[in-house]
Amino acid sequence: MKEKIQSKNLGVFDSGIGGLTVVSQIMKVLPNENIVYFGDTARVPYGAKSEQVIIDYSLQIANFLMSKDIKMLIVACNTATSVAIDALTAKFDIPVIGVIKPGARAAAETTKIKKVGVIGTYATVRSDVYSKEIQKIDPSISVISKPCPLFVPLVEEGWINHQVTKIIAEEYLSPLVKKGVDSIVLGCTHYPIIRKVIQSTVGNKIKLVDSAESTALEIAKTLKEKKILNTLNQTPNYQFFVSDFPHKFDEIGARFLGRKLENVKRVQLN
Predict the structure, then answer these.
(1) Which residues of 164-199 are buried (b: 16+ CB within 10 A; e: fewer)?
(2) Structure pTM?
Protein backbone atom coordinates (compact mmCIF):
# COMPACT_ATOMS: atom_id res chain seq x y z
CA MET A 1 0.00 0.00 0.00
CA LYS A 2 2.83 2.40 0.87
CA GLU A 3 4.56 1.75 -2.46
CA LYS A 4 1.28 2.33 -4.29
CA ILE A 5 0.88 5.79 -2.71
CA GLN A 6 4.53 6.66 -3.33
CA SER A 7 4.26 5.84 -7.03
CA LYS A 8 1.21 8.04 -7.57
CA ASN A 9 1.62 11.12 -9.75
CA LEU A 10 2.37 14.71 -8.90
CA GLY A 11 -0.29 16.84 -10.58
CA VAL A 12 0.98 20.18 -11.88
CA PHE A 13 -0.92 22.90 -13.71
CA ASP A 14 -0.50 26.36 -15.14
CA SER A 15 -2.53 28.77 -17.24
CA GLY A 16 -0.27 27.93 -20.18
CA ILE A 17 3.11 26.29 -20.55
CA GLY A 18 5.04 28.55 -18.16
CA GLY A 19 4.58 26.01 -15.38
CA LEU A 20 7.04 23.78 -17.20
CA THR A 21 9.75 25.86 -15.51
CA VAL A 22 8.47 24.41 -12.23
CA VAL A 23 8.27 20.91 -13.73
CA SER A 24 11.89 21.22 -14.84
CA GLN A 25 12.98 21.97 -11.27
CA ILE A 26 10.86 19.12 -9.88
CA MET A 27 12.58 16.73 -12.30
CA LYS A 28 15.97 17.87 -10.98
CA VAL A 29 15.11 17.79 -7.27
CA LEU A 30 12.82 14.74 -7.37
CA PRO A 31 14.04 12.48 -10.21
CA ASN A 32 11.91 9.50 -9.13
CA GLU A 33 8.56 11.28 -9.15
CA ASN A 34 5.91 10.64 -11.81
CA ILE A 35 4.39 13.87 -13.12
CA VAL A 36 1.16 14.79 -14.89
CA TYR A 37 1.11 18.34 -16.27
CA PHE A 38 -1.82 20.35 -17.61
CA GLY A 39 -1.39 23.66 -19.43
CA ASP A 40 -4.55 25.65 -20.09
CA THR A 41 -3.21 26.99 -23.37
CA ALA A 42 -6.66 27.63 -24.85
CA ARG A 43 -7.53 30.15 -22.13
CA VAL A 44 -4.17 31.76 -21.36
CA PRO A 45 -3.51 34.35 -19.99
CA TYR A 46 -5.33 34.25 -16.65
CA GLY A 47 -3.95 37.57 -15.41
CA ALA A 48 -6.68 39.84 -16.77
CA LYS A 49 -9.60 37.51 -15.91
CA SER A 50 -11.93 37.86 -12.93
CA GLU A 51 -11.18 36.03 -9.69
CA GLN A 52 -14.25 33.80 -10.02
CA VAL A 53 -13.30 32.72 -13.54
CA ILE A 54 -9.76 31.88 -12.38
CA ILE A 55 -11.17 29.83 -9.49
CA ASP A 56 -13.57 28.02 -11.85
CA TYR A 57 -10.78 27.21 -14.32
CA SER A 58 -8.49 26.02 -11.52
CA LEU A 59 -11.14 23.69 -10.09
CA GLN A 60 -11.85 22.25 -13.55
CA ILE A 61 -8.17 21.49 -14.09
CA ALA A 62 -7.74 20.08 -10.58
CA ASN A 63 -10.68 17.74 -11.14
CA PHE A 64 -9.04 16.51 -14.34
CA LEU A 65 -5.71 15.94 -12.59
CA MET A 66 -7.44 14.11 -9.75
CA SER A 67 -8.69 11.63 -12.35
CA LYS A 68 -5.01 10.87 -13.08
CA ASP A 69 -4.42 9.42 -9.60
CA ILE A 70 -2.33 12.23 -8.12
CA LYS A 71 -0.98 12.38 -4.57
CA MET A 72 -0.23 16.12 -4.59
CA LEU A 73 -1.54 19.14 -6.51
CA ILE A 74 1.00 21.79 -7.50
CA VAL A 75 -0.32 25.15 -8.70
CA ALA A 76 2.57 26.22 -10.95
CA CYS A 77 0.87 29.52 -11.77
CA ASN A 78 1.25 32.66 -9.70
CA THR A 79 -2.13 34.04 -10.76
CA ALA A 80 -4.00 30.84 -9.91
CA THR A 81 -2.07 30.51 -6.65
CA SER A 82 -2.89 34.06 -5.60
CA VAL A 83 -6.59 33.67 -6.36
CA ALA A 84 -7.57 29.99 -6.14
CA ILE A 85 -5.25 28.27 -3.63
CA ASP A 86 -7.77 28.48 -0.76
CA ALA A 87 -10.60 27.03 -2.87
CA LEU A 88 -8.36 24.19 -4.04
CA THR A 89 -7.10 23.42 -0.54
CA ALA A 90 -10.66 23.38 0.80
CA LYS A 91 -11.96 21.00 -1.87
CA PHE A 92 -9.25 18.35 -2.11
CA ASP A 93 -7.87 16.11 0.61
CA ILE A 94 -4.35 15.87 -0.83
CA PRO A 95 -1.52 18.39 -0.26
CA VAL A 96 -1.87 21.52 -2.41
CA ILE A 97 1.24 23.62 -2.98
CA GLY A 98 1.48 26.95 -4.79
CA VAL A 99 4.47 28.93 -5.98
CA ILE A 100 4.01 32.10 -3.95
CA LYS A 101 5.02 31.16 -0.39
CA PRO A 102 8.30 29.52 -1.49
CA GLY A 103 9.05 32.54 -3.70
CA ALA A 104 8.27 34.96 -0.89
CA ARG A 105 10.65 33.16 1.48
CA ALA A 106 13.40 33.21 -1.15
CA ALA A 107 12.87 36.96 -1.70
CA ALA A 108 13.04 37.71 2.04
CA GLU A 109 16.33 35.79 2.23
CA THR A 110 17.78 37.45 -0.87
CA THR A 111 17.23 41.15 -0.17
CA LYS A 112 20.05 42.94 1.67
CA ILE A 113 18.45 46.40 1.93
CA LYS A 114 14.90 45.17 2.61
CA LYS A 115 13.48 46.56 -0.62
CA VAL A 116 11.93 43.96 -2.94
CA GLY A 117 10.27 44.36 -6.31
CA VAL A 118 7.57 41.96 -7.54
CA ILE A 119 6.51 41.61 -11.16
CA GLY A 120 3.52 39.56 -12.27
CA THR A 121 0.15 39.60 -13.97
CA TYR A 122 -2.56 42.09 -13.08
CA ALA A 123 -4.33 39.47 -10.96
CA THR A 124 -1.22 38.56 -8.98
CA VAL A 125 -0.27 42.18 -8.36
CA ARG A 126 -3.86 43.14 -7.55
CA SER A 127 -4.07 40.39 -4.93
CA ASP A 128 -1.01 41.85 -3.14
CA VAL A 129 -0.25 38.30 -2.08
CA TYR A 130 3.52 38.51 -2.43
CA SER A 131 3.68 41.65 -0.32
CA LYS A 132 1.56 40.00 2.38
CA GLU A 133 3.64 36.82 2.41
CA ILE A 134 6.99 38.64 2.39
CA GLN A 135 5.93 40.96 5.20
CA LYS A 136 4.70 38.01 7.27
CA ILE A 137 8.31 36.85 7.21
CA ASP A 138 9.81 40.30 7.79
CA PRO A 139 7.48 43.30 8.29
CA SER A 140 10.38 45.70 7.73
CA ILE A 141 10.74 44.70 4.07
CA SER A 142 9.28 47.20 1.61
CA VAL A 143 7.60 45.57 -1.40
CA ILE A 144 7.00 47.41 -4.67
CA SER A 145 4.82 45.57 -7.19
CA LYS A 146 4.53 46.15 -10.92
CA PRO A 147 2.15 44.36 -13.33
CA CYS A 148 3.81 43.18 -16.55
CA PRO A 149 0.88 41.65 -18.47
CA LEU A 150 2.49 41.62 -21.92
CA PHE A 151 5.33 39.33 -20.86
CA VAL A 152 3.11 36.22 -20.96
CA PRO A 153 1.86 36.55 -24.56
CA LEU A 154 5.37 37.53 -25.69
CA VAL A 155 6.77 34.33 -24.18
CA GLU A 156 3.92 32.23 -25.55
CA GLU A 157 4.59 33.73 -29.00
CA GLY A 158 8.24 32.77 -28.69
CA TRP A 159 9.56 36.34 -28.79
CA ILE A 160 12.25 35.54 -26.24
CA ASN A 161 14.97 37.87 -27.54
CA HIS A 162 12.81 40.07 -29.75
CA GLN A 163 13.43 43.81 -29.78
CA VAL A 164 9.80 44.42 -28.82
CA THR A 165 10.30 42.32 -25.67
CA LYS A 166 13.35 44.39 -24.74
CA ILE A 167 11.46 47.67 -25.26
CA ILE A 168 8.51 46.51 -23.16
CA ALA A 169 10.85 45.21 -20.44
CA GLU A 170 12.46 48.67 -20.23
CA GLU A 171 9.03 50.29 -19.96
CA TYR A 172 7.88 47.92 -17.20
CA LEU A 173 11.06 47.61 -15.15
CA SER A 174 12.69 51.04 -15.16
CA PRO A 175 10.36 52.31 -12.35
CA LEU A 176 11.53 49.46 -10.08
CA VAL A 177 15.17 50.26 -10.81
CA LYS A 178 14.57 53.94 -10.03
CA LYS A 179 12.95 53.01 -6.71
CA GLY A 180 16.11 51.21 -5.65
CA VAL A 181 15.04 47.60 -5.18
CA ASP A 182 17.89 45.11 -4.80
CA SER A 183 15.89 42.02 -5.74
CA ILE A 184 12.93 41.30 -8.00
CA VAL A 185 10.59 38.33 -7.71
CA LEU A 186 9.66 36.82 -11.07
CA GLY A 187 6.03 36.50 -10.03
CA CYS A 188 4.92 34.48 -13.04
CA THR A 189 6.26 31.12 -14.18
CA HIS A 190 6.58 32.42 -17.75
CA TYR A 191 9.06 35.12 -16.77
CA PRO A 192 12.18 32.94 -16.25
CA ILE A 193 12.13 32.25 -19.99
CA ILE A 194 12.96 35.92 -20.60
CA ARG A 195 15.22 36.10 -17.56
CA LYS A 196 18.20 37.27 -19.65
CA VAL A 197 16.21 40.20 -21.05
CA ILE A 198 14.94 41.12 -17.58
CA GLN A 199 18.42 40.87 -16.03
CA SER A 200 19.94 42.93 -18.82
CA THR A 201 17.27 45.60 -18.32
CA VAL A 202 17.64 45.95 -14.53
CA GLY A 203 21.38 45.34 -14.33
CA ASN A 204 23.44 42.73 -12.50
CA LYS A 205 23.28 44.46 -9.11
CA ILE A 206 19.63 43.47 -8.80
CA LYS A 207 19.05 39.80 -7.94
CA LEU A 208 16.21 37.96 -9.67
CA VAL A 209 14.22 35.51 -7.55
CA ASP A 210 12.73 32.53 -9.41
CA SER A 211 10.26 30.65 -7.22
CA ALA A 212 10.42 27.45 -9.30
CA GLU A 213 13.44 26.03 -7.48
CA SER A 214 12.09 27.06 -4.07
CA THR A 215 8.77 25.42 -4.93
CA ALA A 216 10.48 22.15 -5.91
CA LEU A 217 12.28 22.10 -2.56
CA GLU A 218 8.99 22.76 -0.74
CA ILE A 219 7.39 19.87 -2.63
CA ALA A 220 10.25 17.56 -1.62
CA LYS A 221 9.94 18.62 2.03
CA THR A 222 6.18 18.01 2.06
CA LEU A 223 6.47 14.61 0.37
CA LYS A 224 8.97 13.54 3.02
CA GLU A 225 6.84 14.87 5.87
CA LYS A 226 3.75 13.08 4.51
CA LYS A 227 5.86 9.94 3.90
CA ILE A 228 4.75 9.77 0.27
CA LEU A 229 8.10 10.47 -1.40
CA ASN A 230 8.70 8.09 -4.29
CA THR A 231 11.83 6.14 -3.35
CA LEU A 232 11.29 3.43 -5.95
CA ASN A 233 14.22 3.26 -8.35
CA GLN A 234 12.21 3.26 -11.56
CA THR A 235 12.17 5.40 -14.69
CA PRO A 236 9.61 8.16 -14.00
CA ASN A 237 6.54 8.60 -16.16
CA TYR A 238 5.82 12.09 -17.50
CA GLN A 239 2.46 12.97 -19.03
CA PHE A 240 1.60 16.32 -20.64
CA PHE A 241 -1.87 17.65 -21.43
CA VAL A 242 -2.99 20.96 -22.91
CA SER A 243 -6.33 22.53 -23.80
CA ASP A 244 -4.97 23.70 -27.18
CA PHE A 245 -1.81 23.47 -29.30
CA PRO A 246 -0.71 27.08 -29.72
CA HIS A 247 1.69 28.43 -32.33
CA LYS A 248 5.25 27.18 -31.80
CA PHE A 249 4.08 25.03 -28.87
CA ASP A 250 6.73 22.30 -29.25
CA GLU A 251 9.53 24.84 -29.67
CA ILE A 252 8.52 26.94 -26.68
CA GLY A 253 7.68 23.94 -24.50
CA ALA A 254 11.12 22.45 -25.11
CA ARG A 255 12.71 25.76 -24.15
CA PHE A 256 10.74 25.83 -20.88
CA LEU A 257 11.47 22.23 -19.97
CA GLY A 258 14.98 21.93 -21.31
CA ARG A 259 14.05 18.79 -23.23
CA LYS A 260 11.78 17.70 -26.05
CA LEU A 261 8.10 17.37 -25.21
CA GLU A 262 6.73 13.97 -26.17
CA ASN A 263 3.23 12.50 -26.32
CA VAL A 264 1.44 15.76 -25.55
CA LYS A 265 -2.33 15.28 -25.62
CA ARG A 266 -5.11 17.81 -26.05
CA VAL A 267 -7.99 17.65 -23.56
CA GLN A 268 -11.19 19.67 -23.66
CA LEU A 269 -12.40 20.53 -20.17
CA ASN A 270 -16.03 21.00 -19.23
Answers:
(1) ebbebbeebbeebbeeebebbbbbbbbbbbbeebbe
(2) 0.87
